[in-house]
């Protein structure tokens, strides 16, 4: 556990219980529109059923806080550890990830009862939890927020496979909003500092804060819009191998990719609010790293490095923008916020910072062991719980990932 986390956990001790409660409530609220069947299906191997998210986030608290720090705690069901451990090898064997959708039992009601059991045990033990356990509660809150976003993107992927195209929930129509003209803003050059500040919570992969060298560059004033992506398609962007990385070209051909995920040729897209006309002024979403890279080449630009992006965003307020505030459907909206709407692909591989050390204990498996074959995304999306992200935050996914709210902000050398 970093000292930064420890100091912060002490400072926020008083409001930690409140944040824990509101986080747990929001997850329940996100599951409210779902039937047991909705919450059980798994659209593909990398996504998880909503029911699994509800249970796994409870398993995290039950295992790392209650089992390890509360004497006499009795698990809700000892068999659940096998079902709801995600990838923690230190916690032993687990149910195969691609088969999470086969768990018709326990039922959604039983999973909700599991959550109540864990919540009550946490509430009862809270005032006597040692510092180390409070730090794990803080991680558990941030972990559950990540799963709130995954719950939404996974249920979108699941509902998108149903020919009836059911909406998860309605979202209010908003006034038309023309896209702002795109401009490129010069970034700082020379040696700058990146990485998490010492005075707030951060995951281990954001540490340590360190110096890095920025060369001359400029960053786009807003993310790429759906309208600009339409121009890329119309100009043969998906049919021109000169624009693509070899691996990306092979991927696009192999998977018949010719537009962002969920787009249809009739200028509509499937969303959490059902099928809707594409808002051409809104930030493009659900594109892979490969597509983002090809678009940038077509536009005479490139993707920013994560260090350029972080320095660019360091003066912005991460609590502003189109992010998740309450249970319900979400959509990227114009004009496109630096924090909010869509996560923005960077050209940077998810790799350790100089001096990186994984967190101690089983939660050391949280980030470090995934530092291979993935790219960093920065910012936040419309499905990111407000308060979760910050300039130093490092989201990461493999380059073919499209089911997240992933978009593009261009950069240039200069
Ligand atoms: Fe998890």
The domain tally reads 2
Biggest sheet details: 4 strands, mixed
Question: Tally the helices: what do you get?
Answer: 11
* Outline type: globular
Strand-pairing-aware structural class: alpha+beta
CATH-derived topology of the largest domain: paralog of FGE (formylglycine-generating enzyme)
CATH class of the largest domain: Alpha Beta
The portion of residues assigned to helices is 25-40%
Q: Spatial order of the strands in the main sheet?
A: 9-8-7-10
**What integer is the average pLDDT?**
94
Strand residues, percent: 5-15%
Protein topology:
Layout lengths: L2 H9 L1 H19 L4 H5 L9 H20 L10 H5 L23 H18 L5 H29 L24 E3 L3 E5 L15 E5 L2 E4 L5 H9 L11 H9 L13 E4 L2 E4 L11 H10 L7 H8 L29 E7 L25 E5 L15 E3 L8 E2 L3 E3 L1
Parallel strand pairs: 7-10
Antiparallel strand pairs: 1-4, 2-3, 4-11, 5-6, 7-8, 8-9
Bound molecules: fe (ii) ion.
Detailed description of the structure:
The chain has 414 residues and is of the alpha+beta class. The radius of gyration is 21 Å and the shape is globular. The chain has helices spanning 3-11, 13-31, 36-40, 50-69, 80-84, 108-125, 131-159, 226-234, 246-254, 289-298, 306-313, and strands at 184-186, 190-194, 210-214, 217-220, 268-271, 274-277, 343-349, 375-379, 395-397, 406-407, 411-413. 34% of the residues lie in helices and 11% in strands. The longest helix is centred in the middle third of the chain and has 29 residues, at 131-159. Mean pLDDT is 94; it is low at 1-12. It folds into two domains: 3-160, Four Helix Bundle (Hemerythrin (Met), subunit A) (Up-down Bundle); 184-413, paralog of FGE (formylglycine-generating enzyme), CATH 3.90.1580. It has eleven helices and eleven strands. The strands form four sheets. Strands 9-8-7-10 form a four-stranded mixed β-sheet. β5 (268-271) and β6 form a beta hairpin. The chain binds fe (ii) ion. Fe (ii) ion is lined by residues 56, 86, 143, 147.
